[in-house]
Amino acid sequence: MSDLFSLQDRVILVTGASRGLGYAMAEAMAAEGGTVILNGRDRKTLDAAAAKLKAKGFKAEPAAFDVSDFAASTKAVADIVKRHGRLDVAVLNAGIQHRKPLLEWENADFQRVVDTNLTACFVLAREAARAMVPRGQGRIIFTGSVMGIVARPTVHAYAAAKAGLAGMAKTLAVELAPKGITVNTICPGFFETEMNTPLVQNPEFNNWVKTRCPLGRWAKPEELGGAAVFLASKAGSYVNGHMLVVDGGLVVMM
Ligand code: GCO
């Protein structure tokens, strides 16, 4: 049996993992033997998600904190290293969305989205690297978005943050590579997640996605798991600074 995609004995933090893409990536990596530490804001939802993975025989534990509380994030990573002696993979996925025509935006709306979707990822990447550098190995994976590559109206802060993530990933990739750490960004297309429910339930937008995406459909969260496993495993050992687009071909179609 090849160990190319094995994550056996890897300690893996996944933020925003109570549901949706984070939970799907955590499940896929747990299925490859990883010990996944699920982060979310709501302890109850998080405990249920961890219990679901443990019921499948996987190694999973909750780590409840709000990624936009930078002190809490810093402490949470230190606690993981104290408990497990290591942190091998950080999937920095937690994100929020805010959709409004430009003139209806308040400064605080923009700040809140950027704090959670971008600044929090910087803080967590730094703290993860602090744990990884002494061991000379590690994988940092950001959840970006096709909204960091192409554009649609109303999602200004989200697009800015996701484009920023991809840029930050490249700077971290070149700085941390000599220390054995790779940094990459997964860019999902339109996935059926709770965050996107308003879009899925809007018949006009739903039909637009189905025509705009060559595969003619929304993606299921579990369709993102393989990308995380690939980048976290031996299979992805020479991939660094990459934007792995998982969008059914949306960004390449005219
Ligand atoms: C939106 C959606 C997108 C999603 C999409 C691409 O409002 O356009 O929330 O921003 O992130 O799934 O990743």
Could you characterize what this model shows?
This protein has a 7-stranded parallel sheet with strand order 3-2-1-4-5-6-7, with helices on both faces. Helix 5 (156-176) links the parallel strand 5 (138-143) and strand 6 (181-188). The chain has helices spanning 20-31, 43-55, 70-84, 107-132, 156-176, 197-200, 203-212, 225-232; strands spanning 11-14, 35-40, 59-64, 89-92, 138-143, 181-188, 243-246. The protein has one domain: 3-Layer(aba) Sandwich (Rossmann fold), CATH 3.40.50.720. The chain contains 8 helices and 7 strands. The protein is 43% helix and 15% strand. The protein has 254 residues and is α/β, with parallel strands linked by helices. Residues 97, 99, 145-147, 152, 155, 158, 188-191, 195-196, 199 line the site of D-gluconic acid.
Distance between termini?
42 Å
**CATH class descriptor:** Alpha Beta
- Unreliable residue stretches: none
Counting DSSP E segments of at least 2 residues, the number of strands comes to 7
Please trace the helix and strand order, writing H or E for each element.
EHEHEHEHEHEHHHE
Bound molecules: D-gluconic acid
Total helices: the number is: 8
Task: Give average pLDDT, whole number.
Answer: 98
Overall geometry comes to: globular
Fraction of residues in helix? 40-55%
How many distinct folded domains?
1
| Integer-rounded radius of gyration | 17 Å
A few lines on this structure:
The protein has 254 residues and is α/β, with parallel strands linked by helices. It has helices spanning 20-31, 43-55, 70-84, 107-132, 156-176, 197-200, 203-212, 225-232, and strands at residues 11-14, 35-40, 59-64, 89-92, 138-143, 181-188, 243-246. D-gluconic acid (GCO) is lined by residues 97, 99, 145-147, 152, 155, 158, 188-191, 195-196, 199.
